[in-house]
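Build the 3D complex.
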Amino acid sequence: MKVHGHTRLAALLLSPALAIIAVFMIVPIGITTLYSFLEPARYGGVIWEFSTDAYVRLLFERDIFDDTLSFSTDYIRIFVRSLVQAGVATLLCLLIGIPTAWFIATRPDRQKTLWLMLVTVPYWVNLLVRTIAMLLILRDEGPINDSLQAIGLTSGPLPLSYNNFAVGLGLAYSFLPFMILPLYAAIERFDFSLLEAAYDLHANRWKAFVGVVLPILRPGVVAGSLLVFIPGIGAFLAPDILGGGKTIMIGNLIGQQFQGSRNWPFGAALSTVLMTLTLIALMWSARRAAKAGTEVV
Amino acid sequence: MALLDRRDKDIRNLPGFGTMAVVAVVFLYAPIAFLTLYSFNSGRSISQLDGFSLRWYKAVFANEGIQTAALNSLTVAVIASSVATVLATAAAMATVRLRFRGKEVAYGIINFPLMVPEIVTAIATLIFFATIGFRLGLMTVIVAHIVFCIPFAYLPIRARLASMDAGLEQAARDLFARPMMAFRRITLPILMPGIISGWLLAFIISLDDFIISAMVAGPGATTLPVHIYSMLRLGITPEVNAVSSLMIAASSILVLISAVLSRKTKT
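Done.
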């Protein structure tokens, strides 16, 4: 076999996987974008007529009597809420994740494996089950509210569930392992003997941490934030189960268009916007990573 | 004193970080531990423990809807993860061992399912099957699962292959002459742990999925998470807790198996 020119064999080996992803994912996303420019049929599906109504509907409300358009922030608000909730969840994960990953990475090898196991196992538990478990904890009659009242800190239940707080917490709970693992990987790569020099320069460990370690953590922070933020924006289960009617996010709004209210083009348009947002976030981070790479090397 | 001073300066031990790690673990485990505890409750309540009993587990095992859904979930997971693993192994062989143009593109396509929000995948797949007029059923769920299982199966296999000495295969090829033989006798056995963990990963991911299955499952093709979700319409019941606890147990066992396997192969 020659070292170069394996193109035919490579094509043979790769084509099944690539074809399946292309046919059942890339083409469907293309069709979805196409659907976003069509007219909705009454009971789901589409009428093959060009229309930008789905996108107009994102920003404007159409008067049912005289067909005039007026600016409406209803759907924008859902988009903003999704971004904010995903952002809050990301910050919460960073807050918990950085110290945790640091602690794990600085343990002796055997303890390290154990701690890593501990933080990864919950991730593999079914997300729906974990979300239900979170609701169980946060309910008005749940253990948190029960114990708060038992020790007399509160007289009635705190509103922990069916609101934005619950959704943000639920999102952080869903994706925390995604944050800890890349952070851990970044810290693992770090050569601690280098820190000796930092001590001499910075005098105390907090300054050493901020001055030397945080820059090293950066790739882990970027990767982890992305892994929490992106699934966070499009999340369906956390807002559906932990939130109330006033806390729905894009994922739920999209889902509704294919279940209850049935407007496929509108759902397709929402998906297209969500997909675009996601790709922008990914490209931004890829560019940042590339830049950071050239800076370091 | 000097020792104490050293420890105090050691950046490995930052005050409060250990506490935070404990907080993280409690945060991750408390909800599922609580749910599991209440699944053993003898009473109907989900907020007051009356005593220990297995009645809700008995109820789960007697529930035909749950049985059918669990069987569907297993069928989908076994088929989807197996197909995805075969495809991913071939793809990994190509991307790690061969030189060809467009490798970056191939890599991008394989990982593409990881970058698309699940809800987008879900409705895009639904729209696709509706457009080509394919009736929704178990088959549509299986196909959708194969797609997103591919990158999950691919990653561990690729990692294992990349850490493997290519010289071994080269030597084998010199001895056996036929590449297929070298693959079967040398590459495949060494690659096996990667393949197994890839399969397990894909399997768990398939069992985990809710939204994609919910969108593309036809009548009678309900998977277990979709069924549990529909049970929630009556609120969280002890029965929901019991079936959820069973899922927690199943995925924990699978993760432990995969951890043990990966540790065994490291030594």
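The beta strands of chain A are 38-40, 46-50, 60-62, 69-71.
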